[in-house]
Design brief:
alpha/beta, Rossmann fold, Arc Repressor Mutant, subunit A, 3 domains, five-stranded mixed β-sheet, 21 helices, about 35% helix, globular, binds adenosine-5'-triphosphate, binds zinc ion, ThiF/MoeB/HesA, zinc
Length: about 600
């Protein structure tokens, strides 16, 4: 295709970019430099200091301002004659409806979460606008092309399950059995510190959760002797007595989890036959009494009202990249406990670990290090521990730039209707077949995709009078119950379709119900969409916007009552959605590696 035609296609194009973060900044710059003239950008966020290392359109002075607006201004400085329209808004806002999407020739995603990606996917399907989707994680990245009727949609294939750590094996010992498979991707990066990862997970998911989270949760931090005897297992060790001060309480917890529990575990000789035996650690052996007491006095010297509570600064440690000694870790541990119970008491019982919570990170780092010490595993800095605890894979600006370039290349093909040459491209960390950028032909749509397939797939049981159909859209948290009732006669004037919809109620403001998952925020009114194409039937559809937890839904799915029939696509949807509960999913299908994938390609 001639370069004039290409230029023309670029100039005429009206492009929507969603997300002005790591990928988005690079993308806007590349679009502008490639000659695009009319770009709209939606981003709901404001600029944070942590964005500045890779979102090069932003500067320190922009912190707190709208990403979309600042990105526009930054690009207009070097390309003043193009039209850039920023929206400081959530792409899920109702204003961004099908009609809004219809005005664009192509939509480009630079998002960081599944929820928004799925939403844009559905709008693009409804508006019949091609979507170019992207994601990066560290050195890995991908760009995929989704065109209704030509390729799969973003939701045609299940996404990989977020990685979880097998807590059951963590309670007793930081072994690495079973771990490698679960953490295949992380393994490359954290090879040398795998055992420490176990300590972090123990500190975060067991100890932190036990002390500061929901007290009722099942969380066994009592290591039993494993000989079947119901050894003298203290039942309320984690409860702070009313006359117990924070200092005493901290020491009790320390000695229990690092000393007593290890002693109990050691009693089970079987466990240690092929493993290195850990050392119980009691506080008196690590910190002389004088030092423990001194601990609490330091606070007023180091803490001011403006700074976040910090146990490390309170005990005089300043560099998060230093590896602290066992004694220092013990001091941080006690101080963090003391600060939590003394200064953040109201939150106790409701806390979940948050990598941006300084005190929580300090607590988890110190606890993991003390445990690591006990098991002869090397200790790590707070910086490393935070990365592991927060599952942080550091963003790489170059990957974002490469991916942005690939998005523009695919966008230009789409704009020229050069669909044959569209490719999904994977940016790899290590060369495969001597390539770092792996192009793959787009896959064709999954016929039973509940989002893009045109018709409902076969139902697992016949629908007849008395059947109750439950259709759920987890994305929009909607549920629709349809009671099918057979009727022989219809009023030809009033019921020409030979079916009636009765008694539906919409309880939520923006309720919509969708028959085959082709849902968007601008979906047609619920009743019309809930129509069953079943002749001579009376349909009672009740639309309820009741929110249900995914766990409840999966239970319901497992124990499906006879009267509840789920279309197969929805049953799949349940499973997938449950797997995808965790939002962050920047890399979508790298598990379906190009050469190993069984998906059918387009020819
Ligand atoms: N629903 C949404 N509507 C509009 N913009 C969104 C939506 N969801 C995510 N975004 C935007 O997508 C961008 C994704 O960028 P990126 O992955 O670089 O994340 P970040 O928030 O900038 O950085 P980090 O998460 O690493 O701190 C963000 O700017 C975010 O505001
Ligand atoms: Zn699909």
């Amino acid at each position: 295709m001639g370069s004039d035609l290409k230029e023309e296609a670029i100039k005429r194009a009206k492009v929507l970019m969603v997300g002005a973060g790591g990928i988005g900044c690079e993308l806007l710059k590349t679009l502008a430099l490639s000659g695009f003239q009319d770009v709209h950008i939606i981003d709901m966020d404001t600029i944070e200091v942590s964005n500045l290392n890779r979102q090069f359109l932003f500067r320190q002075s922009h912190v707190g301002q709208s990403k979309a607006k600042v990105a526009r201004d930054a690009v207009l400085k070097f390309m003043p004659h193009i039209n850039i329209t920023p929206y400081h808004a959530n792409v899920k806002d109702p204003g961004f409806n099908v009609d809004f999407f219809k005005q664009f020739n192509v939509v480009l995603n630079g998002l960081d979460n599944l929820d928004a990606r799925r939403h844009v996917n559905r709008l693009c399907l409804a508006a019949e606008v091609p979507l170019i989707e992207s994601g990066t994680t560290g050195f890995l990245g991908q760009v995929t092309v989704h065109i209704k009727g030509r390729t799969e949609c973003y939701e045609c294939q299940p996404k990989p399950t977020p990685k979880t750590y097998p807590v059951c094996t963590i309670t007793s010992t930081p072994s690495k059995v079973d771990f490698v498979r679960e953490l295949r991707e992380l393994f490359e990066r954290f090879k040398k510190i795998l055992k420490f990862v176990h300590c972090i997970v123990w500190a975060k998911d067991l100890l932190f959760a036990k002390l500061f989270g929901d007290k009722k949760q099942e969380n066994d931090l009592f290591v039993s002797a494993g000989d079947g005897s119901d050894s003298e297992k203290p039942t309320n060790i984690f409860e702070r007595g009313s006359d117990e001060d924070h200092e005493q309480y901290g020491r009790k917890i320390y000695d229990h989890v690092f000393g007593y529990n290890i002693e109990v575990a050691l009693a089970n000789e079987e466990t240690w036959k092929s493993r290195r035996r850990p050392n119980p650690i009691f506080l008196k052996d690590v910190l002389p009494e004088r030092l423990i007491l001194q601990n609490g006095n330091l606070e007023k010297n180091f803490l001011t009202e403006d700074l976040p509570l910090s146990a490390m600064s309170s005990v005089g440690l300043s560099n998060p990249q230093d590896v602290w000694s066992l004694a220092d870790n013990s001091r941080v541990f006690l101080e963090a406990l003391r600060l939590f119970f003394g200064r953040r008491e109201k939150e106790i019982g409701n806390l979940t670990f948050d990598k941006d919570d300084q005190l929580a990170v300090e607590f988890v780092t110190s606890a993991a290090n003390i445990r690591a010490s006990s098991f002869g595993i090397s200790l790590h800095s707070l910086f490393d521990a935070k990365g592991i605890a927060g599952n942080i894979v550091h963003a790489v600006a170059t990957t974002n730039a490469i991916i942005a370039g690939l998005i523009v290349i695919e966008a230009i093909k789409v704009l020229q209707a050069d669909f044959q040459n569209c490719r999904m491209t994977y940016c790899l960390e290590h060369p495969a077949r001597k390539m770092l950028l792996m192009p793959v032909e787009p896959f064709e749509a999954n016929k039973s995709c509940y989002v893009c397939s045109e018709v409902l797939v076969e139902l697992p049981a016949p629908v007849s009078s008395g059947t109750m159909l439950t259709v759920e859209d987890l994305q929009q948290e909607l549920s629709c119950h349809i009671n099918i009732k057979h009727r022989e006669e219809f009023d030809e004037d009033k019921e020409p379709d030979k079916m009636v919809l009765l008694g539906w109620t919409a309880r939520e403001k923006e309720s919509q119900v969708v028959s085959n998952g082709n849902s968007t925020s601008a979906a047609v009114p619920a009743a019309a969409e809930a129509t069953m194409k079943s002749e001579e039937a009376e349909v009672n559809a009740e639309i309820s916007g009741t929110k249900r937890k995914l766990s409840e839904i999966s239970e319901a799915t497992e124990n499906q009552e006879a009267s509840q029939i789920l279309p197969r696509a929805d049953a799949d949807n349940f499973k997938n959605s449950q797997e995808l509960e965790d939002d962050d999913d920047d890399l979508v299908v790298l598990d379906n590696y190009p050469e190993t994938s069984k998906k059918q390609r387009l020819h």
